[in-house]
Structure formats: C-alpha cells, structure tokens
Amino acid sequence: MANGWLTTHVLDTARGVPAEGISITLYRVSGNSHKKLVTLVTNADGRTDAPILPKEKFRTGQYELIFAAGEYLRKHGIGGGEPLFLDEIPIRFGISDEDSHYHVPLLLSPFGYSTYRGS
Prior knowledge:
This protein is mainly β. The protein has one helix spanning 69-75; strands at residues 5-7, 10-12, 17-18, 23-30, 33-41, 61-68, 88-95, 101-103, 106-109, 112-115.
C-alpha cells in the first residue's frame, strides 16, 4: 500500500486571504480519458477538510485538479465582467512516488494564477 497522499489549498492573492468555498474536483487521467475520483470544497483556511487523495487511494499516474474559481470570484465581486477571464482552472500533474506527500496549491487572483509542488 502507498504511504503518500495528495493535498491542496487555495489562497486569494487579490484579497490576501484563504479562499473559502471553492469546489475542487480530482480526475485520474489516462490518454483522453478522465475518471472523476472526488469533489471537495475548501474550508475557511482555504484547505479541504481531508486529503484529496488519501493514502488508501494514492497511486502513481497522471491527475488533474479542476478548481471552480469563477463562483468564488463572482461572489466576492473580483472577477471582472462576463465571461470571466478565469472560471474553471485545470492543473494537470504527475505522481511518480507512491510514498511521498504531494501538495498542489493554487494562488488565485482574478486575472492570473500560479501553482507549485509544495510540502
């Protein structure tokens, strides 16, 4: 069994706060196929209450996180006009080590975002 796990968090860099209430869906990707694994929502700390991919489900492979940022940006009046520049934000990444913690955060603003492999 794998000993790794996957986590994320979202920081609203425009407002300088954790981004609460963003829906995040994780897919396992194989070629053109996407298999939905889970959908979670960020809490007041901008994190999910549980790992997105816990140890018992953690496997190597290609994955994609979809952050539903548009609803959050609209709610806080910082998204700009319709259609929003950013609405759903996909981040595709690979997991190559079943025994490591992978942390894939999103730093969000209305007109740009960044990510990295954190700890």
